[in-house]
Amino acid sequence: MKLIETLRNDLRTYEGDCFAQGVWVAVVQRFGEWRYGIRLSPVRKGLSFLYKVVYKLTQILTGVEYPCEAKMGAGTRIDHFGGIIVSGYASIGDYCVIRQGVTIGLKNETEPVAPKIGDHVSIGAGAKLLGDITIGSHVEIGANAVVLQDVPSHAIAVGIPARIIERKREQKEEPRHHSPSGVQ
């Protein structure tokens, strides 16, 4: 079952710590997304009621608002809890890190579009990513940055409003993994 496999991967993301608040958020988000695939209307409605109750309890306990309508990529980690708001219109890629006080949402209420975030993105504490923007992969968003424009892959966004800093070529390269014998 795909849901169980996804939840196992989420638990591995948190090194097996089922008491990490990020695990709770991930479980509820995944469950909420999964219930949409249930074809029997009475069963789906019952599961939807259960989702709404558990979602609200998790939101109260963790301070994280991450609705099931927002995409959560594999290995995404909520590193610290509290004050995190993710719009249902947002899309977050694989292996991202979200820290406390982050908002990923609408720029204004008349445009229901939120950021699309690539893979391997690190979002610093207090950062705000707003509106119809795309954040590339392997990006670092600085603490308290207010990002209102697209950020290309392999860049850094810092400041209010955020300015984009392109990384130097040597900073873009992926770390090499060496085998124990030294042969690559």
Strand order, largest beta sheet: 3-6-9-12-14-15
In the predicted model, the low-confidence regions spanning at least 5 consecutive residues are 175-184
Radius of gyration from the alpha-carbon trace, in angstroms: 18 Å
Measured by DSSP, the beta-strand proportion falls in: 15-25%
Order of helices and strands: HHHEEEEEEEEEEEEEEEH
N→C terminal distance: 36 Å
Residue-averaged pLDDT: 90
Mind describing the biggest β-sheet?
6 strands, mixed
SS class: alpha/beta
According to DSSP, the number of beta strands is 15
Overall shape: it is globular
Q: What is the number of helical segments per DSSP (H or I, 4+ residues)?
A: 4
User: Percent of residues in helical segments?
Assistant: 25-40%
Provide a descriptive summary of the structure in words:
With 184 residues, this protein is of the alpha/beta class. The chain has 4 helices and 15 strands. The chain has helices at 2-13, 21-35, 41-62, 169-172; strands at residues 64-65, 71-72, 77-78, 84-86, 91-92, 97-98, 103-105, 116-117, 122-123, 128-130, 134-135, 140-141, 146-147, 155-158, 163-166. It has a 6-stranded mixed β-sheet with strand order 3-6-9-12-14-15. The N and C termini lie far apart (36 Å).
